[in-house]
Amino acid sequence: MRKIAVLTSGGDAPGMNAAIRSVVRVGVEMNMEVFGVNHGYAGLVAGNIRQLRARDVGGILGKGGSFLQSARCPEFKTEEGQMKALHVLRETGIDALVVIGGNGSQTGAYALSKRGFPVVGIASTIDNDLYGSEITIGVDTALNVILEAIDRLKVTASSHERAFVMEVMGRDCGYLALMAGIAGGAEAVIIPEVETDPEAVAEEIRSAYERGKTHALVVVAEGARYNATKLESYFKENHERLGFELRVTILGHVQRGGTPSAFDRILASRLGEAAVKAVDDGETGVLVGLISDQIVRTPLQEVNTHKKTLDPKVVKLARVLAR
Ligand code: ADP
Ligand code: F6P
Fold this sequence. Notes:
This protein is α/β, with parallel strands linked by helices. The protein folds into two domains: 2-138 and 260-305, Rossmann fold (3-Layer(aba) Sandwich), CATH 3.40.50.450; 139-256, Phosphofructokinase domain (Rossmann fold, 3-Layer(aba) Sandwich). The protein contains twelve helices and eleven strands. The strands form two sheets. The chain has a seven-stranded mixed beta sheet with strand order 3-2-1-4-5-10-11, sandwiched between helices. Strand 4 (96-101), helix 4 and strand 5 (119-123) form a beta-alpha-beta unit. The protein is elongated. 6-O-phosphono-beta-D-fructofuranose (F6P) binds at residues 10-11, 102, 125-127, 169-171, 222, 256.
C-alpha cells in the first residue's frame, strides 16, 4: 500500500484543516496510508509523524489554524536539514509528501523535489503571493476579517471626522490591502507594488474632506515602504503643516485566525483532492492551484522562479472608486 504524508508550513491560513482532511479522506479512498507530520518541516526533520485515518480528521473542517500545527524551520533551509528530512521520509517508508503552505514552504517543497523526493504543494497563504494559483487557501477568510474591522473603523471615524490608517498583512505583497481597499471603500490604498509618497496620501485625505466625506480611511500593506508606523510618524512630524492627525490600527495576526469561509473550505477540499490525484498519477514536483476556476498543476520550478503580480487595472479601479 502506498504511503503519503502531509504537513502544513509557514503562516497558518484558515482552510488548512479542510485541506488536511481532504488529503486524508481522498488518500484513504484511493487505498493509501496517510501520515500527518506535526509542526511543518521542523516535525519532518525530527520525525514527528503519525498515521491519520478518516475519523482522525473529523471535526476540524470549520476550524481555523492547523490541527497539525504549522512552523517556520530555519534548519530546513540548510542541506543538513533537508538530508535529515529525507532520511526520516525514507525510514518511514513514505512514498510522497504533500506540503500545504505559501511561498517559503513551496521553496522547501521544491528543494526536496530537486533531491529526488516526490512532493506536491497545495497553495495556501493569506498573502496570495504564490505563483500558480490565482487565489490561495485563507485569502477569502482573511479579507472578510479585515472588512469587518474596516466597517467598524469607519463607524467611529465618521463620528469624529477622523482620518484612519489600517495596516494589513501580506508580507511583500499588496493583494490583501488592495482588495480590502476596494471592498471596504478606502480613500487610499498603499501597496509595495506602487511607490507612494506620504505627501500624496495627505493630499488624498485632504481632498476627501473637501469632497464632503466625513472620514478618510487609508489601507496600507505591511510591506509598503511607508507602512502604518512610518506614516504615523511622518504625519506627527508634519502635523501643523498638514492640519490633521492620523489614527493608526495595525490589524496583525487576528487576520489569520478567522473561521474558514465557505470559499476557503471548498477550495481547500478541492486542492486536497487534486494533490492526492497528482501523487496517484505520478505527476509530482508540482503545485496544485486554482486558475480560471480550474485546478492546475504548475511545476514547483516554475512556481519558484516566477513572481505573482497585481493587475494594474484593479489598482486603478481602487483609485477611481475612492472618488
Ligand atoms: P510561507 O510558506 O508562509 O511563505 P515561510 O516563508 O516562513 O512561510 O517559509 C516556511 C518554511 O519553509 C521555512 O521556515 C522553511 O522551513 C521553509 N523554507 C523557506 N524558504 C526555504 C528555502 N529557500 N529552502 C528550503 N526551505 C525553505
Ligand atoms: O505569510 C503569512 C503572514 O501572516 C504574513 O502576512 C506576515 O508578514 C507573516 O506571516 C507574519 O509572520 P509571523 O506569524 O511569524 O509573525
